[in-house]
Amino acid sequence: xxxxxxxxxxxxxxxxxxxxxxxxxxxxxxxxxxxxxxxxxxxxxxxxxxxxxxxxxxxxxxxxxxxxxxxxxxxxxxxxxxxxxxxxxxxxxxxxxxxxxxxxxxxxxxxxxxxxxxxxxxxxxxxxxxxxxxxxxxxxxxxxxxxxxxxxxxxxxxxxxxxxxxxxxxxxxxxxxxxxxxxxxxxxxxxxxxxxxxxxxxxxxxxxxxxx
Amino acid sequence: xxxxxxxxxxxxxxxxxxxxxxxxxxxxxxxxxxxxxxxxxxxxxxxxxxxxxxxxxxxxxxxxxxxxxxxxxxxxxxxxxxxxxxxxxxxxxxxxxxxxxxxxxxxxxxxxxxxxxxxxxxxxxxxxxxxxxxxxxxxxxxxxxxxxxxxxxxxxxxxxxxxxxxxxxxxxxxxxxxxxxxxxxxxxxxxxxxxxxxxxxxxxxxxxxxxxxxxxxxxxxxxxxxxxxxxxxxxxxxxxxxxxxxxxxxxxxxxxxxxxxxxxxxxxxxxxxxxxxxxxxxxxxxxxxxxxxxxxxxxxxxxxxxxxxxxxxxxxxxxxxxxxxxxxxxxxxxxxxxxxxxxxxxxxxxxxxxxxxxxxxxxxxxxxxxxxxxxxxxxxxxxxxxxxxxxxxxxxxxxxxxxxxxxxxxxxxxxxxxxxxxxxxxxxxxxxxxxxxxxxxxxxxxxxxxxxxxxxxxxxxxxxxxxxxxxx
Lengths: 212, 472
Known about the structure:
The complex is a heterodimer.
Chain A (H helix, E strand, L loop, with lengths): L5 E9 L6 H4 L19 H4 L31 E4 L11 H9 L3 E4 L4 H8 L4 E4 L2 H13 L4 E5 L4 E4 L5 E2 L4 H9 L3 H6 L2 H14 L6
Parallel strand pairs in A: 1-2, 2-3, 3-4
Antiparallel strand pairs in A: 1-5, 5-6, 6-7
Chain B lengths: L5 H9 E4 L5 E4 L2 E4 L5 H10 L9 E4 L18 H17 L2 E3 L9 H8 L7 E4 L13 E4 L2 H10 L1 E4 L3 E8 L8 H12 L7 E6 L1 H4 L3 H9 L8 E3 L4 H7 L8 H11 L12 E6 L6 E3 L7 E3 L13 H14 L14 E4 L7 H11 L10 E4 L4 H9 L2 H7 L3 E2 L20 E4 L14 E4 L2 H10 L12
Parallel strand pairs in B: 3-4, 3-6, 4-5, 6-7, 9-10, 9-12, 10-11, 15-16, 15-18, 16-17, 18-19
Antiparallel strand pairs in B: 1-2, 2-8, 13-14
């Protein structure tokens, strides 16, 4: 996994609450057996006027010019600003894969759905929770200035808006550690293989049927 | 010291180690695997040269994109990408020595129907699957929740998950459910109250006399939709209904182990003095048959209501969500629910495809006919065994005589990864769990209802109050 230390980038605003993972990456694209290549189909039903299917050349498709990610001023955005309960619905990890493949490195929202939030960290995508008021202020700032940029400092746990006061955010210590160092979580867990085996021995004593 | 909740007990029993930073490793007893969220996990194992920690902990089946018309081999699946996934699961389970209920196996079916049916899920387990509706299995007093593909790989490789303890929420439904009110109506009503993010960060325990009065099938329907209330896990405490359900199933313990297991399982209830971070009580008498009208499961109303007015919503974010939903659904505030016409009906999914659900739908369909204005009514059993049971009871004939289609098991039109889907603009009375934009097909409009309400809509061509069916 790639390290996440500091990220400076253009912000794209997606002014909707309860954006679900079916919207982030519609089901027809889940048929891939790879982790890459989902970017062109991120928010497919909102980005394009026609219906998408796997394997098509999306650059030739009619675009919905009103959709925020299609607007010229947000091209190259690496930070997504959105509303509450982002990523609700299905557990598909294709959602963070699609966001990353598109070029997003971080998402800022007042709240995230649990499974999506968790999936982001496994891929080096940083979901940041800020208060409703701070998110609202960022929406106004993005709208007010074309090319509005933000710096995210993970070490300091701060979102630093262009010409603004740093906004602190909370993050779990273990997740922060893994992101900063780009660690492989499976490798870390396997360092504790003996502890897992000892646990299994205790369980097998008490609930042998689990291990049959 | 305060007593423990059911979730506290399950957490403690599976805690392998706690780290200084507050994260924990919890042991996973059972992993259920399907074709859509596993290929990248197996690929990860191969790339890292790793083997599954304990192959017997996993059980696999195909469900998400299998056709619901008969087929005998992967080669007969017309859609190429679906065929590759089905074939890839076969290859991966063979390579890594994992049991798969595949094509032609009567045990094949929707992951969360198959696993409890086989006794592959028993009380006291931790259960995970790369599918958010894994919460279904919590009905058996398990800690069961969905995970992403990286975690599928992590569980395969280590039999553990890195986790953080959730908070406890109890939702008690007290009293007797009225006629025509089912488990599906109960859970839709709950989601309408606590909202689609109300359970975020919580493990939900469903309790109260109305929950205890439900069969295991009904409890599974309720736990299934915990995730639609934002909660990864939902659960119901062990009682006689649980134990009777598990007894004699193929993977369940037997002999001396059975007695030992039952003794332990009886302890899987929240202590009387357990503390919940949130504790909600609902009067069963307040619950009516429900119909979702919008594009989020919290946008739900009783069937005898009129659609809500966004102008009356004080929360700006919610108000704009409602306005957007009305535009997508092609509906108007204030219209009676019973005026909504349906184009297609879907009876199935991990929420409502068990034998009890099919019986409820058949009860309505018996001696009636599908409305001429309804293009299609799909009845998709949750597994090969559910299908066989239904056919033994003659339910298939009732459906076919009513003009419904009787299909092969799978997820089908719940998420429309296979050929079963809505056309743009069509309204569907669906027994599934999500009414998101495009969920059942690009531009499709989903209304979540119980199996009986879905069958009644199929007959009438529009939503009807199941309690007044004969008068409709």
